């Protein structure tokens, strides 16, 4: 009979904990990034990659004169008629949302990197992401 002994160092434990936090962080960003947004006027916009591509394509078609306005768009709440201005506002809001998600992930990733090994177990990556996404105004 033979056996092997695997010794895990504290550094390996910390590295695994950091990797787990970053994995949770990435999944959280992905979920929020693709979860949609509601604009101030109440319009709900999808924010997944396919919709972002569709928005860009529709805007390009309007700018090139291939598509005329108003045009039909199927939103999560049903059909709407959109103008170029509507589409520009939606596309800008969606792009800002996606960028905010990446900015929040980057900020929390820096927080995780700065944590001491003993602090890793108590760090809540989901809450930290929510706080970073909300921005400094939410922290006051």
Write up what this structure looks like.
The protein is mainly alpha-helical and 140 residues long. It is built from five helices and four strands; from the N terminus they run αββαββααα. A two-stranded antiparallel sheet has the order 1-2. A two-stranded antiparallel ribbon has the order 3-4. A hairpin with a 5-residue loop joins strand 1 and strand 2. It is elongated and about 75 Å long. It starts with 9 loop residues before the first helix and ends with a helix.
Topology summary:
Blueprint (H helix, E strand, L loop, with lengths): L9 H24 L3 E2 L5 E2 L3 H15 L7 E5 L2 E5 L1 H31 L10 H10 L1 H4 L1
Antiparallel strand pairs: 1-2, 3-4
Helix pairs in contact: 1-3, 2-3, 3-4
Largest sheet: 2 strands, antiparallel
Query: Strands across the major sheet, in which order?
Result: 1-2
Order of helices and strands: HEEHEEHHH
Could you tell me the number of beta strands?
A: 4
* Count of helix runs: 5
Strand content: 5-15%
**Separation, N- and C-terminal Cα atoms:** 63 Å
Instruction: Provide the low-confidence segments as ranges.
Output: none
Mean pLDDT: 92
Q: Helical amount among residues, as a percent range? A: 55-70%
Q: What is the CA-based Rg, rounded?
A: 21 Å
Described by the principal axes of the CA atoms, the overall outline is elongated
Structural class: mainly alpha
Short description:
By secondary structure, this protein is mainly α.
List keywords for this structure.
140 residues; 60% helix; 5 helices; mainly alpha
């Amino acid at each position: 009979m033979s056996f092997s002994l695997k010794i895990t160092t504290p550094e390996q434990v910390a590295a695994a904990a950091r990797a787990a936090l970053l994995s949770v962080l990435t999944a959280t960003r992905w979920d929020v990034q693709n979860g949609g947004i509601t604009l101030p006027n109440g319009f709900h916009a999808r924010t997944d990659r396919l919709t972002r591509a569709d928005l860009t394509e529709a805007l390009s078609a309007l700018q090139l004169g291939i598509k005329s306005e108003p045009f039909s768009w199927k939103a999560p709440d049903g059909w709407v008629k959109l103008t170029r201005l509507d589409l520009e506002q939606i596309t800008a809001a969606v792009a800002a949302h996606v960028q905010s998600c990446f900015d929040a992930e980057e900020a929390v990733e820096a927080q995780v990197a700065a944590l001491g090994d003993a602090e890793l177990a108590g760090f809540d990556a989901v809450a930290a992401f929510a706080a970073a996404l909300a921005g400094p105004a939410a922290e006051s």
